[in-house]
Every structure is written in C-alpha cells, then in structure tokens.
Amino acid sequence: MSTLRDSESELRRFAGVGGLAPAYDLLLLTATLTTTADTTIADSSAQDALSDIVVHRDPHTGAPMIPATAQSGVLRHALAARLDRARVGRVFGVAPIDESGIGYHPAALCPHDMLARTTSTRRRTGNAVDPATRTVRPGGVFTVETVPAGTEFDLVWQVWLPRPDDPATATAAATIVDTVAAAGALLDAGHIRFGQRTRAGRGAVTTKDWQVRWLALTNDATDAEAWYSTPYDRIGDLTNDAQATPRLRTALTVLRTRWAACTPDTDSPWCSPLPEAPPPPTGDRVVVTGQLRVAETVAGSVLASTVRTVPGEYPVDSGSAVKALLRATASRVVEFVAASLLAPDAEPSTAYEHARERGRALVRDLFGTHPADPDFRLATPSRLSVNELPLSDAVPVVFDRVPINPLTRATIPGRKGVVAAHYGGSRLLRIEAVDVTAAERGLLMLVVRDLRDGLAAATGPHRRQLESVGFCFHTTGSTRELSWTETVKDPSVHADVAALVTEITRGTP
Description:
The chain is an alpha+beta fold. The protein is built from twelve helices and 18 strands. Strands 1, 2, 3, 4, 7 and 8 form a six-stranded antiparallel sheet that branches. Strands 12-16-9-17-18 form a five-stranded antiparallel sheet. It has a three-stranded antiparallel sheet with strand order 10-15-14, with no helix packed on it. A hairpin with a 4-residue loop joins strand 5 (122-130) and strand 6 (135-146). Helix 3 (85-92) packs across helix 4 (170-188), helix 8 (319-339) runs antiparallel to helix 9 (350-367) and helix 8 packs across helix 10 (438-452). It is globular, with a radius of gyration of 28 Å. The N and C termini lie far apart (83 Å).
C-alpha cells in the first residue's frame, strides 16, 4: 500500500482518459443483512409449475446469494412509490431515451451480490392445484428451497459521488446520499422483502452493523490504490477502520458533518439534517393484527408439519396457506351476499348470477389474479399481504398412518407410514391491505369476523381461529386504532359493510 498522500504523481496511476484523476469519490457502505422469514431468491431453472425451485447460489462458494440486480430492482421499486421519480433515477440510473442518449446517466448506487455466511438451506413441499377444480393435481408435488430465517448476508454497496466537499457539486452529492439513506431506512425498518411469495409472508429482512467509509479517490492516492487493488471478495475489509452503527442514518450523519466543514457557506446542503424515512405510498390501508391459533388445540386433532421437522424447531405456519384461507373465506362471504337476493328454496336467478360475478370480481381485485385461474382475464397483483412466523407453542408428535383404499374403504395390506405432526400452536398474525375501497374494507371486516369465530373456510387440520383482534385504519391524514369490540360498534365500519352489499348487488336486474 502506498504511503504517499495527495501526490499528483501517485494519482496519475489511476487516471482515466486524458490523464485526468477520477471525477467521482467513492462511498463504501457495508452491513449485515439478516432474514427474518424464510426467503427464496430462485434461479431460472424452474420450467413449469411442477418444477422444484432452488435458490440462487454463488458459483464459486455455493453460498445462497441475493444478486445485485435483485437488490437494485426491489429498492428502486420501493423508493419510486415514495419519492420523486427523477431523484430515484439519479441514484439507480436512467436508460437512454434514444440513440443520442438524451437524459441518460449511469447509476450512482452499485450493490454487490450479497452472499450468505452459511450454505445451509431447507426445503418446503408444495402441491400444485388445478385451477378448474381447486383440488391438488395428481402427482403435483414439488419442493421449494428456502434460506431460513436468521441467515446473515454480507451487504456491500458502493456509491459514486460528485465531490461532496466541493460547493459546486455538493447539492448533487447530497441528493444521492439522502436517497441512499432512505433506501437504508426502509431496510432497517423491515419494509423491504426479497424473493418469491413476499405477499405471503416470505422474504422479510432487516439490517444491522452499518459501516461507511469515504474514499476520496480524487485527492487521496492511498484510498485510490486501496480501492483499485482490493480483491472483489475483500472489499468489506476496507471499512475495518470505521465504527459500526446500528443504522445507516447514524453513520451518514457523521460524514455530513465532516462535509459541512468542507463547504462552510450557509447554503451548503450538508448543513441540514438527513430527511426522515420516506412515508409509505399514499392510499387507504387497513392493518389487522391478532394471535392466530390452530383450532385443533382444543379439539384434540393434529396439525401436520409439511414444511420441516427439524428437532428443536417449531413448524412454520405458511403465509401462503393463511392467505389462501382468507381468500376462500372472502369468496364464501360474497357468495352469501349474492344468495341473499334469492327467495327461500328459489332457483338461481339472473340477479343472483350477476351479484355473484360482481362479488368474485371484488375478491379477484383485492387478492390478485393468475393466468392459471379458470376465469382469468388480466394478471393483477395482490393488494393484501400476510406475515409468516413459526407456531411458538406447538407440541411435536409422531404417529402411525395407514392408507385407505378409496374403493373398498378398507386399509391397504402391508402399507403403513409415519407422520410427524404438531398439536395446536399459535403465532402473531399481521394482515395488511393497501389502496382499499370502502367495499373492500367491509369484505375484510367480515372475513376477520369469520376467522375470529372459527368459521373460516377450512376444515380438519387447516382450521384457524384469531384472538385478540385489533384494527388500524390508515387514511389520508389520520390513523385510527380499534379493538374488536370497538370495531363492531363503529358506525364507519357498518357503512363499509353496507358499501360491500351495495357494490355486489349494484346493477342487478
């Protein structure tokens, strides 16, 4: 490593076209990213719905990996919903508008592939469902490889900055730093999810131990040599002289103070504090929380653990299974509303068919659509998400199972198996619906009512019951938190349920 500093002769070794020193300084950010839910960043090997899904791995070490492109895409999408489009484009780059390149500039934030510190993963089984019959396809079993909750990844971001200590470029540098800080704040708060089935509770992450180093490549030969001579897999070593902080905001505030001293004029952008984390996208939101219990805890049945049977671990209550339960219950609710148009013992009428179709459309709009759906018209994303957590107090058991011949209803001779199962269990459930209408709030209210009363659309070992229910209604400029008792008495909730009935029956012949 060179011992010369601020030496023109040394800097020429890193000069670019025309013998000029680098025009940008480098901000190097490192942290530890930890998964808080099972996560699958899948590779491209799956060919159809029945293909086993495997995680993306580093070809050299075999460690699970979150590619740099996945990080940029997820962060850009999250920030674009919260910040000005031009500001986000400044950090993540703008593609050329035409061949002349008008409006084009490269990305300032360049993430590196994040590698896990362990190579261990787990597999979860899935069953392909026939969308026409809503039953499992014969032989339609596949596996999904996941990175378990608690896995740590090494996060490395490099940010190319215009000279932050130069008054002429400080404003542009401050815009980039503020936007990167916003991205870090979303990660710190757990608002960013990676991989598949994020709306079903997977892919949640958080960060810690942020370290930031300012490499002044334009005037420091030591920093320039350190950057250009460090191997790719040892870039994080450059931050050993920086003190780790729990949040990126804290680390960047120290640098802003240093840059403010370099640009002492009163209009320096570094004199103002970092902005707070950007607010969530505008629009009405409803958040439902409660303790979700497996109803069989009382009934004495069992919950088969289809996800993993590792000694000392509790089974994961699949977020996708809970979401499917909510959707099935919502479909049943709108069916009941449509059936209210029928007289007792009457045959289905045109009004009933019209109302049922409007109800189904309401469910599709909230829960999303998929090309495999029998009534598919246009693919739309889901606006409802659930979390995914283990059943904290489940009791593991192992019992024998004997298969039954479906024709004779008798046991099959010589066939016997062992099933690992869990009695009961509970976990914290969080349901969030965004950009909801009054009718959708009313629908969600009735779905939660059935789930609370143990009447959700499920039987046998799939039954659930929600206790200690709480609602949080977010509207423009206001937030209301209500208990279940307060919710059922609230006039606005009654109006939402009435709006649901009106929406479904509107325009019936």
